[in-house]
Amino acid sequence: MNNKKKFIIGITGSSGILYGIQFLKVLAKYIEGESHLIISDSAKIVLKKELNLNISNYNEFMEFCLKDIQVPVHKFILENNNNIGAKPASGSYIHNGMVIIPCSMKTLSGIANGYSTNLIERSAEVCLKERRKLILVPRETPLNLIHIENMRKITLSGGIILPASPGFYHNPKTIEDLLNFICGKILNLLDIEQKLFPSWKG
Predict the structure, then answer these.
(1) Furthest-apart CA pair in the chain: how many Å?
(2) Is position 25 within any domain?
(3) What's the CATH number where 131 sits?
(4) What is the structure's pLDDT at 175?
(5) Residue 72 in this model has a pLDDT that exceeds 90
(6) What is the rounded distance in angstroms from the CA atom of residue 62 to the CA atom of residue 34?
(7) Residue 9 gets which letter from DSSP?
(8) In this model, does residue 6 exceed pLDDT 60?
């Protein structure tokens, strides 16, 4: 039996791009398998703004993400967000779930209202119709009623909204501790045992 995991990862143009990068690091370090990685044009703008990172070169971006990992156990396949004919756009592509981290309100709206304009939104729509796990990590605050209604639609359709709101009961000391809390929550939802933060003991 093949225990390697297959995921679809979307990184969109929301503040909090470090959450997406940390999730890639966690997969590369701990989870054997491969992911189709889709990065929106808006995410590239946020990367430049928040990390002063130019993503014109995919290899340089992955080197930045995985610079502290000597032997990655997870493979990343870059997909063009404009290519709605790519593997993740089809229900015949079998995988273990899709994570959009961070998820912009524009992307969330497109998914909630069935209006797919790119590969990230189409892949998410396919997850919902095929009843596969879809996890969206929004970071927006505060939320208006439109945001909340869109989250409600996605939840009723089978998706999971996991806000980028880290807990503090694990006594975080660094930004990485806060990022890992969210990454650990995602792994829990994907039915993967994680040790990024301790489980609540009661």
Answers:
(1) 48
(2) yes
(3) 3.40.50.1950
(4) 96
(5) yes
(6) 14
(7) E
(8) yes
Confidence of residue 2 (pLDDT cuts 50, 70, 90): low
Check pLDDT > 80 for residue 56. no
* Residue-level pLDDT at 49: 92
Q: Pick the closest to residue 105 from 20, 180, 163 (CA basis).
A: 163
Q: Please say whether the beta carbons of 196 and 169 come within 8 A.
A: no
Tell me the one-letter amino acid at 13: G
168 occurs within a structural domain: yes
Mean pLDDT computed over 80-102 = 96
Total number of domains in the chain: 1
Q: What is the DSSP letter of 88?
A: G
Domain containing 32: what range?
5-189
Best CA proximity match to 5, nearest among 70, 66, 71, 74: 74
Tokens for 99? Answer: 């994570």
What six digits make up the tokens of 50? 């928040």
Closest CA to 25 of 71, 65, 80, 63: 65
Q: What is the mean pLDDT of residues 125-134?
A: 98
Q: Which of 140, 139, 150 has the alpha carbon at shortest distance from 112?
A: 150
The answer to the question of residue 32 being in a domain is yes
Does 196 fall in a domain? no
Q: Phi first, then psi: give them for residue 110, nearest 5 degrees.
A: -60, -40
Q: What single-letter amino acid sits at 4?
A: K
- pLDDT for the residue numbered 1: 39
